[in-house]
């Protein structure tokens, strides 16, 4: 989960000034958390508390009205009678990572991801994007290798994952759809050698950078066994106390990265610039 939040923070600077390079400061002085983080924490809060997802999302989301929500979502968030609005946007996928960490079977992960999506993103592509992201996290944290993850997600959801970051980057542009974000974020992870590399891959595509890095980052966290201590420290520094409190409690309960790396998948280092 911290991997998702860190990806959002790192990518936030480049959402509106997109870049096509992996050579950038990991934590730029202007970086901040966005709606990706707020809603990820809200999903985690619902899982921890047992509250319905819709209640946690509306309760926590309303605390941060300027987090960068889309127009349809902000209307839903503030509505006295919120209804799903048939969205296929990538908002359903950016917030779902806690599901992949918390639940213990593929069926349960898929079912819960569907529930988190359908309160707003009840279009089939919106549901599919959330399920694919959550399942990728689940497979990564339960020991699947990259080729197994690639094959499983591609066969289940029909995404073209037989691509590379270098192949996608030249013609890729800003895309807020699940179908134009989730496969590319997964490829950014599949092409990586570390957590940091996955996030750099995602940002370098030059798209919806915070969301691409959020999705790639949560899968990479699960696969590589955590995030570097420096990344965790920076996330804690940049989150508000209430958001950090939920994050810390969720990670303590579900084994997300609260300490040093510990994975057979690989090791890596982070440079805070």
Secondary-structure blueprint:
Blueprint: H1 2-12, H2 35-49, H3 53-61, H4 71-78, H5 91-94, H6 97-102, H7 106-118, H8 124-141, H9 146-157, H10 165-168, H11 182-190, H12 195-204, H13 209-224, H14 229-238, H15 241-254
Characterise the protein shown here.
The protein has 273 residues and is mainly α. It has a single domain (2-254), classed as ADP-ribosylglycohydrolase fold. It contains 15 helices and no strands. Helix 2 crosses helix 15 and helix 8 runs parallel beside helix 13. The radius of gyration is 16 Å and the shape is globular. Residues 258-273 have low confidence and may be disordered.
CATH superfamily: ADP-ribosylation/Crystallin J1
CATH fold title: ADP-ribosylglycohydrolase fold
Kindly state the number of beta strands. Answer: 0
Query: Can you tell me the residue ranges where pLDDT is under 50 for at least 5 consecutive residues?
Result: 258-273
Percentage of residues in helical conformation: 55-70%
What is the radius of gyration computed over CA atoms, rounded to a whole number of angstroms? Answer: 16 Å
SSE topology string: HHHHHHHHHHHHHHH
Through-space gap between termini: 22 Å
Given helix and strand content, the structural type is: mainly alpha
CATH class label: Mainly Alpha
Q: Describe the largest sheet.
A: none
What's the rounded overall pLDDT mean?
Answer: 93
CATH architecture term: Orthogonal Bundle
- Number of structural units classed as domains: 1
Which descriptor suits the 3D outline? globular
Number of separate helices? 15
| Binned strand content | under 5%
């Amino acid at each position: 989960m911290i991997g998702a939040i860190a990806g959002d923070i790192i990518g936030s600077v480049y959402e509106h000034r997109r870049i096509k390079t992996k050579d950038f400061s990991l934590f730029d002085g202007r970086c901040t958390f966005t709606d990706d983080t707020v809603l990820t924490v809200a999903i985690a809060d619902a899982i921890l508390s047992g509250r319905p997802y819709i209640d946690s999302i509306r309760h926590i989301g309303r605390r941060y009205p300027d987090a960068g929500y889309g127009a349809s979502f902000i209307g839903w968030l503030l509505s006295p009678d919120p209804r799903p609005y048939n969205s296929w946007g990538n908002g359903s996928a950016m917030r779902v990572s806690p599901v992949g960490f918390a639940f213990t079977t593929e069926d349960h992960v898929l079912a819960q991801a569907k529930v988190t999506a359908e309160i707003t993103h009840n279009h089939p592509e919106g549901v599919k994007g959330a399920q694919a992201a959550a399942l990728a996290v689940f497979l990564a944290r339960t020991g699947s290798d990259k080729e197994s993850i690639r094959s499983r997600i591609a066969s289940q959801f029909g995404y073209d994952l037989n691509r590379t970051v270098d192949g996608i980057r030249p013609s890729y542009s800003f895309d807020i759809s699940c179908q134009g974000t989730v496969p590319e974020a997964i490829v950014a992870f599949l092409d990586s050698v570390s957590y940091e590399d996955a996030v750099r891959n995602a940002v370098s595509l030059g798209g919806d950078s915070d969301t691409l890095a959020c999705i790639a980052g949560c899968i990479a966290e699960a696969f590589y066994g955590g995030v570097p201590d420096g990344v965790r420290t920076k996330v804690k520094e940049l989150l508000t106390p209430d958001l950090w409190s939920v994050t810390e409690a969720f990670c303590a309960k579900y084994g997300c990265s609260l300490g040093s790396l510990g994975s057979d998948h690989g090791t890596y280092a982070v440079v805070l610039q």
